[in-house]
Amino acid sequence: MYQHYQNNELVFKTRWITTEGFYFSEKELLDPSLEHYLNTSEDPEEQIIFIPFSQIKQAAPLYENQPPLLDIDVIDPNNYQSLVADFENKAQLKEAIQEIEKHSGLQETVEIIKNKSWMRNLLYTLAAAFFGFSLVMMAREMEAGEALDLSGRRSGFKSVLASIAGQLGVVGSTVLAIALVAGFGYLTYTIYKSSNRTRIVWKK
User: Fold this and answer.
1) What integer is the mean pLDDT of 150-158?
2) How far apart are the first and last CA of the chain?
3) Alpha carbon distances (Å) from 135 to 117, 132, 141, 157, 162
4) CB-based burial, 142-167: b 16+ in 10 Å, e otherwise
5) For a designed S-S bond to 14, which of 25, 109, 131, 187 qualifies (C-beta 3.0 to 4.6 A apart)?
6) Mapping DSSP to helix (H, G, I), strand (E, B) and coil, where does residue 89 land?
7) How many other C-beta atoms are found inside a 10 Å radius of the C-beta of residue 58?
8) 34 has a pLDDT exceeding 80
9) Phi/psi at 111 (5° precision)
10) How far apart are CA 204 and CA 190, in angstroms?
11) Considering only CA atoms, which of 197, 195, 196, 5 is closest in space to residue 99?
């Protein structure tokens, strides 16, 4: 296969697909003959980036992007360049994927991408649990007639707890604590489930 594509609106304005691999250029090279540039340029690497199919470690198509993209990782980054190539349309991107699959031996795989943003909500859940536990303990001390120690570094926080505990009592404080932990816990679980997404990649 030998295809030449040229589009001056893309980052890689010129692209060739051959049986050996991909050739990309950020320059507008109108001549469809790849050999013309490889043989006449003193340093063709200044104009053209070559990625052999045998060097592709992983390829991840981004069809939903506009323009569609192909994220390419190489085996030897010292001699070849990993890059994200843009394509005119989904059909051209699909054509590139088919050539990768045909010549590189890479296979389609569903990959799970884990996002750790939910961990911040986990901290909120732990903070709610600490607040709820402290509230219930203080309410119990108040109902038992024990003197509360509201001094120290957290005197303001303790005063707020004492005020809430005094109004709610043990039962009310327990209900509030359970509601807070359950609410933050459910939110954390929901974010955790939605933060993990899947994508299709081609790799060995």
Assistant:
1) 72
2) 23
3) 28, 5, 10, 11, 8
4) beeeeeeeeeeeeeeebeebbebbee
5) 25
6) coil
7) 18
8) yes
9) -115, 135
10) 33
11) 5
